[in-house]
Amino acid sequence: MTDPRRVETPTEWAPYMHWSKTHERALHDLTGSNLLPLGIEELPGGIEAVRLTGPNDEGYTPLVESIAARYGVEADRVCTAPGTSGANFLAMAALIRPGDEVLVERPTYDPLPGAARLLGAEIRRFDRAFEDGFQPDPERVAGAVTARTRLVVLTNLHNPSGVLIPEATIREIGVVAESVGARVLVDEVYLETAFDVSPRPAATVSDTFISSNSLTKTFGLAGLRCGWAIASPTVAEAMRRARDVVDAVGSFPSETLATVAFAQIDRLLDRAREILVPNLRRLGETVEGAPDLAWATPEGGPGGFPCLLGTEDAEPFVEFLEREFETSVAPGRFFEAPAHFRVAIGGAVDRVSLGLDALDQALAAWAARVSGD
Fold first, then answer.
1. To 5 degrees, how large is the angle CA 111–CA 173–CA 219?
2. Given 3-state DSSP classes, what are the helix, strand and coil percentages for the chain, each rounded to the nearest 5?
3. Which region, left, alpha or beta, applies to residue 209 given φ > 0 means left and ψ of -120 to 50 means alpha?
4. Are the beta carbons of 204 and 184 closer than 8 angstroms?
5. 240, 189, 13: which is closest to 116 by C-alpha?
6. Cα(88)–Cα(117) distance, rounded to whole angstroms?
7. What is the pLDDT of residues 53-110, one digit of tens each?
8. Residues 287, 325: Cα–Cα separation, whole Å
9. Are 34 and 302 in contact (CB under 8 A)?
10. Does the pLDDT of residue 8 top 90, yes or no?
11. From CA 92, how far away is CA 128, in angstroms rounded?
12. Residue 178 and residue 114: Cα distance in Å, rounded?
């Protein structure tokens, strides 16, 4: 008989997040997906702007207006949130009820299906196949939605691969969702690292979409926990009412600092480019120079998701890499793709280079071991 007092353990909701918080860090840590943290001394005007309290019941107005101006939308379409994950949760809390179906891509970032499960939704999946370069196929989405589907969930850039979804595909998926009365939540926390393309948020395509983002991954300000969603005015208002029972209001010091950050957001984006472009180029050299690896080339983002060829499970190599070369990467099993592993490159260029040197050495040693040389 099931104990009615049973308490779910955290790993049942998001195993990857639990692992990322608790695993032992190696000398060369290529697991964290945040950009190199920005110190407050690197944010001119930040210290002077900090205030402990102020008017932010529906989001600090200068911050909301800054977000709206950056993405070319009206302020009533913006809902602030505690990070991108917070924005995703508020969107789900506003739109789904226990027993509704939520259709989630696979592979994906596991807090996304975890949040929907936490809210009592039934999870359905559609595959973003490695053979298709991890591009979502609207026909697969159409084959997976039902009359009970209330939300389709995507990441763009794709987490974990860094692949960009073309806007035409986004539109097609929106049409599929509309056909069953569903909406589409697009986690865009890495989207602005597609530096050469500058794609616009999906929420500016149509009201079917909700775009979530934050200052965390691209801008090096994870500590602020400043996130937001762009949605139709109706959905944005429903998210604000959901926030009434989550954390009520944001941290005022964080929101004032975030406003300072938005005033210099292009400079922060240039900083991200200076870190990520050379690191991604260097990771490409590793992947493309290793005969046992293949990947879908990232458009940007904090890393890549190579496949270790000739095996269904890359975890023995991941363990070998950490044990013998003091270098850690994220196992693909956390993204439901065990033949892969995620390599994060958001750290300082010199530190990432050392980690990738170690990965090069480990791949050569592994290939020799497998071949018996």
1. 45
2. 45, 15, 40
3. beta
4. no
5. 13
6. 13
7. 998 999 999 999 999 999 999 999 999 999 999 999 999 999 999 999 999 999 999 9
8. 17
9. yes
10. no
11. 22
12. 24
What's the CA gap between 87 and 129, in Å, rounded?
27
d(CA 273, CA 279): 10
- Enumerate the β-bridge partners of residue 28: 327
Q: How far apart are CA 257 and CA 217, in angstroms?
A: 16
**Cα(307)–Cα(286) distance, rounded to whole angstroms?**
13
27 touches 352 (CB < 8 A): no
Cα separation of the two ends of the chain:
55
4: left (phi over 0), alpha (psi -120 to 50) or beta: alpha
pLDDT tens across 228-245, in order?
999 999 999 999 999 999
**Three-class SS of residue 133?**
coil
Tokens of 275: 């870190």
Separation of alpha carbons 299 and 279, rounded Å: 13
